[in-house]
Amino acid sequence: MQRIDTDVVIVGAGAAGLTAATELVKAGRDVVVLEARDRVGGRLWTGDVDGAMLEIGGQWVSPDQDALIETLDELGLETYPRYRDGVNVYIGPGGELKKFEGDIFPVPPATEQEIVTLIEKLDALVAEIDPEEPWAHPQAKDLDEISFARWLETQTDDDEARENVGMFIAGAMLTKPAHAFSALQALLMAASAGSFSNLVDADFILDRRVVGGLQLVPLGLAERLGDRVRLGQPVRTLRWSIEPTDGADGASAVVAVTDELEVHARQAILAIPPVLVNRISYEPPLPRRQHQLHQHLSMGFVIKVHAVYDTPFWREQGLSGTAFSPWELVHEAYDNSNHGDPRGTLVGFVADEAADGVFQLSAEERKAAILESMSHYYGEQAKHPVVYYESDWGSEEWTRGAYAASFDMGGLARYGADLRTPVGPIRFACSDMAGKGYQHVDGAIRMGRLVAAQILEAEPVEATAR
């Protein structure tokens, strides 16, 4: 087994791990990044499927994502706006299709007022929430002990209003049923975007895309790091101690062991989703608190559906491609055509319990059911794509869900403050732990910068000179 000595070993070559590595290298540190997959990027993945470029993972950039935008500029990457000309489509509880413009769905006036009132109430609560410390809110415990679905029921008896407001958190973001997570978790999701109003504004939250795909961010960072990044190296064991124990200069406090390598370092960063932390064996075991908190976190479940057509036919109908319905199998969909591509691409989402249901079908039956739902928005032509692909992150061994991990009822107030707490020489960083930018690549970059700064502050560079 090959031994490598370094200053910091980083587990995970997603945006968080590669950002941390970049910042540490800029400051003169030696780093080694160990990635289990045969590619970099984690939940950012741009693939070629039957000749079509598809962003299998995350893809959008919103104007408040300063850390991501700075990184795009640093790497020289260009963006382009999501197509949104034309009218949007909404399907109500009775199956009636309505076209609309603006943010509020075409619902009865009383329901529209209820939706506006709910958004105003949520915005007021979100304004009181620090996304870095949502558990510090005076009512955090109470808000964390009531499900978001139940909270909505306490605010209005209008079912259509509740379903529409709930969809933006449950289906569109946390990808769990609204009864499965707390009101506090919902408020954190909204606070991470600046407000609930931002979260429900598709023109804001899904503003732009990167020419060539968002995976170009981790690919660009990895290229600069060169052979510091080792692919196909899942970490099996992490041996650690609070005090340095061994090493070429007697300074190692942590050893990361893969099937081929032993990486000895002063510090370690676990830049992986929290649900993967327990895939590693620790010697000695992690503290009890870590074991507890990780039992209260789970990933959401969503299928991202890509359908490519010879032309963007919906534009000829005056449609923007944006479509919503809490009552449809595909609860939201958008024009996802690539920059400079004459073909048209639609992207749709099937989340939480609906995704459970379609995975009980055969692949052909599932495809037919999903395309049938999309045809309710766009017409018969939607049933006949030239390329069709389902991004199923729940089956990815090194992710196990999407888009991010969230706490069960009561878990955020109880364990949230411990999520980023270092354990000896081990630090944690990923988008699942971010405040601002939670579950987005912007949050991953912020977390990578944060842990790198903490390491640099804790150990001046002269202390690590080899």
TrEMBL record:
<comment type="similarity">
    <text>Belongs to the flavin monoamine oxidase family.</text>
</comment>
<dbReference type="InterPro" id="IPR002937">
    <property type="entry name" value="Amino_oxidase"/>
</dbReference>
<dbReference type="InterPro" id="IPR001613">
    <property type="entry name" value="Flavin_amine_oxidase"/>
</dbReference>
<feature type="binding site">
    <location>
        <position position="235"/>
    </location>
    <ligand>
        <name>FAD</name>
    </ligand>
</feature>
<dbReference type="Pfam" id="PF01593">
    <property type="entry name" value="Amino_oxidase"/>
</dbReference>
<feature type="binding site">
    <location>
        <position position="349"/>
    </location>
    <ligand>
        <name>substrate</name>
    </ligand>
</feature>
<dbReference type="InterPro" id="IPR036188">
    <property type="entry name" value="FAD/NAD-bd_sf"/>
</dbReference>
<protein>
    <submittedName>
        <fullName>Putrescine oxidase</fullName>
        <ecNumber>1.4.3.10</ecNumber>
    </submittedName>
</protein>
<feature type="domain" description="Amine oxidase">
    <location>
        <begin position="16"/>
        <end position="456"/>
    </location>
</feature>
<dbReference type="InterPro" id="IPR050703">
    <property type="entry name" value="Flavin_MAO"/>
</dbReference>
<keyword id="KW-0560">Oxidoreductase</keyword>
<dbReference type="GO" id="GO:0050232">
    <property type="term" value="F:putrescine oxidase activity"/>
</dbReference>
<feature type="binding site">
    <location>
        <begin position="35"/>
        <end position="36"/>
    </location>
    <ligand>
        <name>FAD</name>
    </ligand>
</feature>
